[in-house]
Specification:
Layout (H helix, E strand, L loop, with lengths): L1 E3 L2 E7 L8 E10 L5 E3 L5 E8 L2 E5 L7 E5 L1 E4 L6 E4 L3 E9 L1 H8 L10 E2 L2 H4 L3 H10 L4 H16 L7 H12 L6 H8 L3 H11 L4 H15 L8 H7 L5 H12 L3 H13 L11 E3 L2
Antiparallel strand pairs: 1-2, 2-3, 3-10, 4-9, 4-12, 5-8, 5-10, 6-7, 6-9, 8-11
Helix pairs in contact: 5-6
InterPro entries: AraC_XylS_family_regulators, HTH_AraC
Organism: Streptomyces lavendulae subsp. lavendulae
Keywords: DNA-binding, Transcription, Transcription regulation
Length: 288
């Protein structure tokens, strides 16, 4: 937990009963304008429920002027680009980071509808769902109690949820285990399904095709690989499945608009503040 005179930032792993569906929870409490947070491609689906001043997102499209959207409650699917955001004033919020298959079970819709997009949770979970749960969170003053409130709500939604396809579960597990270093052809061979069928299943139950998911996992591996594991950026590129350092540089710039060296500095700063990677993922860093 990080606590300053500007606010508080808390992270917690999901309990055992939801560990397969939920990566972690986050809590924010800001007393004024906080630092800008850069949310990274991380192969997770995010739910945010907040009160007070809304979250402001800054979308940095290369071909269009920067635009901003404000959200008290938000669902965000898997992304192949980064997003900057922050709270302009006094605010509190709870975030849930789902695994893709956990989100598929909890939300009950094809996840390609959320890919590279943000929607209000009520569009998926029903009118009033986010307001009712937010009221319970406001009435619960401590973070541990809030985690219990959110876990109980998610667990109720998953009681009768159909499980994901065993084929997708196996393919997802294999990609996670090798940090995306498995070609679409080899993935199809190991699962016994054709590439086209896997494309359809991944778009429905993960949100993005296997090639895009592999790219995100490879990026996350390069970002979170401990410094002592490689002597140079060239070593890092080789260990993480890139053709060479130039390939890794291009991928980082395309995904987040920064070089590997620049982003690794921000990642090291995040770790020093207690925002360590969980399950090989670093979902966000603070820009300033």
């Amino acid at each position: 937990m990080e606590s300053t005179n500007r606010g508080e930032y808390v992270e917690r792993r999901a309990s055992e009963r939801l560990r397969a569906q939920v990566v972690m929870y986050r809590g924010h409490r800001t007393a004024g304008r906080g630092p800008v947070r850069l949310t990274l491609p991380s192969a997770t689906v995010t739910l945010i429920l907040g009160w007070g001043d809304p979250l402001q997102l800054f979308h940095e499209a290369r071909s269009a002027p920067e635009s901003r959207a404000t959200w008290h409650a938000m669902l965000a699917g898997l992304r192949t680009s980064s997003v900057k955001g922050g709270y302009p004033g006094v605010a509190e919020a709870v975030e849930v980071e789902f695994t893709p298959l956990g989100a598929y079970m909890c939300l009950g819709l094809p996840l390609h509808h959320l890919a590279n997009d943000h929607v209000h949770p009520d569009e998926v979970l029903g009118t009033g769902w986010s307001a009712r749960l937010t009221e319970q969170l406001i009435a619960t003053p401590d973070w541990e109690g809030r985690w219990a409130v959110i876990e109980n709500a998610l667990a109720r939604r998953m009681v009768d949820a159909p499980p994901p396809s065993p084929v997708v579960a196996e393919a997802w597990s294999q990609l996670r285990a090798c940090h995306g270093q498995l070609s679409a052809k080899d993935l199809a061979a190991t699962t016994g399904r054709g590439s086209r069928r896997l494309q359809v299943l991944f778009r429905e139950q993960i949100g993005l095709p296997p090639q895009s998911v592999s790219r995100i996992l490879r990026f996350q591996r390069a970002l979170t690989l401990p410094p002592e594991a490689c002597r140079s950026l060239a070593d890092r590129a080789t260990l993480c499945g890139y053709y060479d350092q130039a390939h890794m540089n291009r991928d980082f710039r395309d995904l987040v608009g920064l070089t590997p060296a620049q982003l690794c500095v921000l990642a090291e700063s995040a770790v020093s503040r207690g925002n360590a990677p969980i399950d090989g993922r670093l979902a966000n860093v603070f820009c300033h």
